[in-house]
Design a protein that fits this description.
Length: about 350
């Protein structure tokens, strides 16, 4: 509550909440106020934290200004619906299903079965995922006894076998379909968040990824950010810059607006840390995305910009990843925006 009140003191945030006067001790009112805050930040974050400093914006001897930003994805996020392929947020922390699949709660995991799951006999009993039908119990048992469907790096859960990893749960849809499951036997999480960070460490924008760093998502997210910001960095460092630029170049005829915004206005570069792992046989990457090809990025042999800013920012996010995993979507978004907001304020 104190954190919310602190942010309401910000004129930009208070304007979004003033009309409905949502600050109260009532939980429903508090959640509504959190929702207002999250919606406002989703729409105005990039504009609110429009930024320029001597570390990320440089003026050369000819008086020409140029800037640099870094972008990267970070594996972290809240719970998603357990149904494979569904990217909707869960209804609540105890439901584990979205509003469209809420009817599956408590139902047998086997596709087509409308029976309720049987009760757990003990803490190591993994078969309550199914109903009491023998075939369904055997299918679940077979899944957990199959080495290809389990991980060695696990906590003792579901009979000592689980696919829960440190960072996230990546569902193997093929295995689930083979065993006849209609939803994941494990918690599913948002794949991650995507960051655009000025080279000084100031976060330009942040967005949730519902798929793992697809070019379609990145293109849409970048266009949304820069259309709001009305400013483009001169250089953008990205570990997969060569792949992304090639996609933009090949798709120029299909969408000339995106091509003009992202390909012509920004110089895409692979940072030196990741560039060493790129194939020397990739001539396009070697000729177009090597930072050493751009003299403006160096002062003598010293790089002018911190090209690891996104990685360093991701390290900061790592400290709160475990907190976000088991918050409901609204709580997770509010917490994430609040922390990022405070971080930018401290760096300003």
């Amino acid at each position: 509550m104190l954190l919310l009140q602190e942010y309401i003191q910000d004129p930009a945030v208070s304007e979004a909440l003033q009309a409905s006067n949502q600050v109260s001790d009532n939980v429903e009112d508090l959640r509504l106020a959190m929702k207002e805050y999250v919606e406002w930040m989703n729409a105005h974050f990039a504009v609110k934290w429009k930024h320029s400093c001597g570390e990320c914006h440089v003026v050369d001897s000819k008086g020409q200004e140029y800037s640099a930003a870094v972008m990267d994805g970070k594996v972290m996020g809240h719970l998603l619906c357990r149904v494979i392929g569904c990217n909707l947020d869960i209804i609540g922390i105890n439901t584990k299903f979205c509003i469209n699949h809420a009817g599956l709660k408590g139902k047998c995991i086997i596709s087509g079965c409308a029976n309720q799951k049987r009760e757990r006999e003990n803490s190591f009993d993994y078969q309550p995922l199914s109903c009491k039908e023998v075939e369904h119990m055997e299918a679940v048992g077979k899944f957990f006894s199959d080495p290809s469907t389990t991980s060695e790096k696990t906590a003792k859960k579901y009979g000592g076998k689980t696919r829960v990893s440190v960072g996230h749960v990546k569902d193997d849809e093929r295995n689930y379909e083979e065993f006849g499951f209609c939803y994941s036997p494990f918690d599913r999480f948002l794949p991650g968040v995507f960051l655009i960070v000025w080279s000084c460490g100031h976060i330009m924008d942040i967005g949730k990824m519902y798929s793992f760093e697809s070019n379609k998502f990145i293109t849409g997210f970048l266009c949304q950010t820069f259309m709001r910001l009305e400013e483009y960095p001169t250089f953008m460092f990205y570990d997969k810059a060569c792949v992304f630029v090639r996609t933009l170049k090949n798709g120029a005829q299909q969408n000339k607006l995106l091509h003009k915004m992202l390909y012509q206005k920004i110089i895409w570069v692979v940072d030196q840390f990741h560039f060493r792992n790129h194939s020397r046989r990739d001539r396009f990457c070697m000729e177009n995305c090597d930072a050493r090809s751009f003299a403006r990025l160096y002062q003598g042999n010293k790089p002018l910009f911190n090209t690891s800013a996104a990685e360093q920012c991701a390290g900061w996010f790592e400290k709160m990843g475990h907190i976000l995993r088991y918050l409901d979507p609204l709580q997770a978004d509010f917490f994430l925006f609040s922390m990022v907001d405070m971080r930018n304020e401290q760096l300003s």
